[in-house]
Amino acid sequence: MNVSLEQAQKAVAAAQKKAAELELKMNIAVVDAGANLMAFARMDGAWLGSTDIAIKKAKTARFFDMPTGDIGSLSQPGGSLYNIEHSNGGLITFPGGIPLKNSKGEIIGAIGVSGSTVENDHTVAEAGTKAL
């Protein structure tokens, strides 16, 4: 089961709306179940460097089917996933990436957001997940 283009665009739009409400300039990426980019938006004035981060957050969330912030807490020194961020061509292990699920609870993709604090990135990503 994959996120459709329509769903991906809906998630991006909801995330953009939340970012605008918070007066933030964000990069927002949605990947499908195979971690392939489906939809992307770079809001006017968003950091160029956050483009890659948003995409990698979405991919990381899909590769491991958990929020990137959860992976981050497991990847600290002494943690069971220490140094995992060096795998898969580079992962992002701080908040802002969240798996997307369908109505049956099946993972169909993921969303990644970057451009502000990790707390704001997570909040905006969460808004995208709620659109589905």
Notes on the structure:
The chain contains four helices and four strands. The protein has 132 residues and is α+β, with helices and mostly antiparallel strands. A four-stranded antiparallel beta sheet has the order 2-1-4-3. Helix 1 crosses helix 4 (118-130).
What descriptive keywords fit this protein?
four-stranded antiparallel β-sheet, alpha+beta, 4 helices, 132 residues, 4 strands, 39% helix
TL;DR of this structure?
The chain contains four helices and four strands; from the N terminus they run αββααββα.
Radius of gyration: 13 Å
- Strands side by side in the biggest sheet: 2-1-4-3
Q: Oligomeric state of the chains?
A: single chain
Q: Biggest sheet: strands, sense, closure?
A: 4 strands, antiparallel
User: How far is the N terminus from the C terminus?
Assistant: 14 Å
Shape: globular
**Overall strand count:** 4
The helical percent reads 25-40%
Q: Which structural class matches the secondary elements?
A: alpha+beta
The total of helices stands at 4
Poorly predicted sequence stretches spanning 5 or more consecutive residues: none
- Write the element-wise H/E pattern from the N-terminal end onward: HEEHHEEH
Average predicted confidence as pLDDT: 96
What fraction of the residues are assigned to beta strands by DSSP?
A: 15-25%
Topology:
Blueprint: H1 5-21, E1 27-32, E2 37-42, H2 50-64, H3 68-74, E3 97-101, E4 107-114, H4 118-130
Antiparallel strand pairs: 1-2, 1-4, 3-4
Helix pairs in contact: 1-4
